[in-house]
Amino acid sequence: MKPLVSIEDLRVAFNGVPVLRGVDIALQKGEAIGLVGESGSGKSVTWLAALGLLPRHAQISGSVRLDGRQILGAPAAELDQVRGGRIAMIFQDPASALNPVLTIRRQLCEALSLHRDLQGNAVKAEARRLLDLVGIPDAGRRLEAYPHEFSGGQVQRIMIAMALAGNPDLLVADEPTTALDATIQAQILELLSTVRRELGMAMVLISHDLGVVAENCDRVAVMYAGRIVEQAPSNQLFADPVHPYAQGLIGALPPLDGPRRRLTAIPGTVPDPAHMPGGCAFAPRCALVAEACGLAAPTLAPIADDRSVACVRAEASRRALLGIAAE
Amino acid sequence: MSPPLVEISAISRTYAMRSGMFGRAAAVHAVDGVSLTIAKGETLGLVGESGSGKSTTGRIVLGLEPPDSGEVRFGGKPMAAPGTAAWRAQRARMQMIFQDPLGALDRRLPVATQIREPLDIHGLGTPAEREERVRELLRAVELTPAHGARYPGALSGGQRQRIVLARALATKPDFLVCDEPVSALDVSIQAQVVNLLCDLQAQLSLTLLFISHDLRVVRQISNVVAVMYLGRIVEIGSADDLFARPEHPYTQALVSASPAPGRRSAGRIVLSGDPPNPAARPAGCAFHPRCPRAVARCKSEVPTLSAVGGDRQVACHLVTGAATRDAA
How many C-alpha atoms does B132 have within 13 Å on its Cβ side? Predict the structure, then answer.
């Protein structure tokens, strides 16, 4: 099956400092993929670059295809059809994504008239239907309200409604629930999965929260220092992570039940993009580091059906996890 | 069990909030009759969503803000009047750590100078002893003297939070209030700081009030956990037991809303309705409009925190009502 979106060797540099160092992602129609990683790992930049949303001084290379058509560096007129139409994006801070002095109706109708062939009353009816769909009570009356009259969770619902206005094939949700309280986060995640199921839409969920990604995505890609280090189906990644960084991330998460154990913290910090170590970027923090790690950056190589890892010590790492003495 | 270091009895704090420029002032009951005790060397975790009053509770406990009613006793004695010598001596024994380390540090001073500041203020030791103490503190938070010469901007988020921790420990306090100390940190760095806090607590037999919205982190570090909702404690109990068997419907929803890797959302309790507005607290049980099990009594009668066996206390008619029926 041909992928809906395929990103190949995407690289981004700001002022000569590389922040994205060769990312490959293929996304099938209707699939939900999660991108996890710490701040600065490049998970947001990947999609901002793919959609041409980075500032002009960013140097971008590689390839981003939507249904086989190259969209990286495409003319603005073509990108305007893609952004909001084929691919929609929602962000962490919904309040700053809405215009505070315009009613919700004006903003929803703007998105609808840009991407849908609707006239007159049909636009308003559709805006109302979208607001209903995302679970805003009393949608007809609430259309005339301003963003500040809604709570944080409701504003994120409105952003989802706006994202759905263009009937997108793919929704990129960048930390959609990070600013929300736990019980509201659960509501928004449930809404996203319902909407996705009903509309058959693909989703990219960008999050620093492993739990959020694990529960809502079919497949997960773990990013570190501008590269994907491991890619696997969610259940496999969390049950049996192979890359030492993925293992570290899961070990660093305090458990909510069972016995308490000391957290296995990953020592050190994320490398400075301007002074990236030669070879594997994770090597300075890795417990399994070997001589080969400093020589060349490992490439993402398949280790099983649908699983790939970028680590020369993948086999040793797997054995260490299983409790078998390495070598 | 050791005697309590901190005793909080029925503290309340109300703010006046105006809606809009000409709106009528409404009373916001940020904290309403909260009582807690923290034994020496123990950690009390305080969880709740935004607006639940957990930070206000922390500020009142430290005396950064006076309670409207109720009392906080520290080491068996009531808090001294602000500005007096007794108050300063008491304040040196308690410190606070905030969520945003960059906001808590002065960007234009080397961090070692900032760690020394509390020693200067409280006049502890000779200048040479203070320098030695700063080096000792940097070691305690697993940093080097070279880090001390840097400015906050030249340190990572985790390192900055370590500096804030070192400064808080400078006066050898008995009691630390940590308000979301690791929420702004990445997972791998968060684990480093949580481990460090646990180690320091054991070494220095610190007493902690640990405020966070993150149930996992709270469970990792706390002996006892209290859950707050709209200014009141709705459930309190030992950390492991509380998260394994939550009794209050709100705690159950919170635990269920905490996503876990390796578990698909089967049978998740998704609460309907908006987050509560502290300025318009519902009558009766404040949680009743969102509670999936609310009955008529919940709308009119405020439930009180009552023991339900073991060290657990719950403020819910459904739970305590059932318990009394069982006893009868």
Answer: 6
